Amino acid sequence: MSAVDILLIIGAYLMGSFSSAIIVCKLWGLPDPRSGGSGNPGATNVLRLGGKKAAIITLLGDVLKGVIPVVAAVAMQVEDMVLALVAAGAFLGHLFPVFFGFKGGKGVATALGVLVAISWQVGLAVIASWLVMALISRYSSLSAIVASILSPIYMYQLVGSEILVGMNVILTAILLTRHSGNIRRLLAGTETKIGQKKS
Fold first, then answer.
1. Does position 198 have pLDDT exceeding 60, yes or no?
2. Which of 54, 108, 162, 166 registers the highest number of CB atoms within 10 A of its CB?
3. Could you please report the per-residue DSSP string of the chain?
4. Domain boundaries defined on the chain
5. Is the pTM of this model over 0.85?
């Protein structure tokens, strides 16, 4: 692995460490998303705290954190292992941001950005899966869980790289772990639906 490869991985982690939710909430004068609403610094919680515009900007920011470093790595034609580590770096930066006390979000939007940058077809399939589940269930968490479980299948079918599929499986496993509380609430029937205020 070259010095450039290492810099790409570190740069991806640092970019992922910029929390869009916290920054947007500060600029909008909203409560800190780590303490308000669900306590998760992500777009769904920002939607509860500040409405659609703030949530959309947060979502775009989180997606771009995954897109930009991976697109840079793809443009440099790095090996699949380096590409996988760049993708994981951006994702882990969001989960454990060095700039915000290593307390980040659940990683759904950044994972999506990573997948879109690796293969727009995979990204489109994941988005479609999320939308279908969201329309049916009105649960953002359930939609994210289903889409993340399906994503390695899409990666295998549309890209085929064993290394990138393996990376995708690891990201999915981490996402499911980060959604353990949501899974418990879904099973208990107490999960908050999209647009619903946190009780």
1. no
2. 108
3. --HHHHHHHHHHHHHHTS-HHHHHHHHHTPPPTTTSTTS--SHHHHHHHH-HHHHHHHHHHHHHHHHHHHHHHHHTT--HHHHHHHHHHHHHHHHS-GGGTT-----HHHHHHHHHHH-HHHHHHHHHHHHHHHHHH--HHHHHHHHHHHHHHHHHHHT--HHHHHHHHHHHHHHHHHTHHHHHHHHHT-PPPTTPPP-
4. 3-188
5. yes
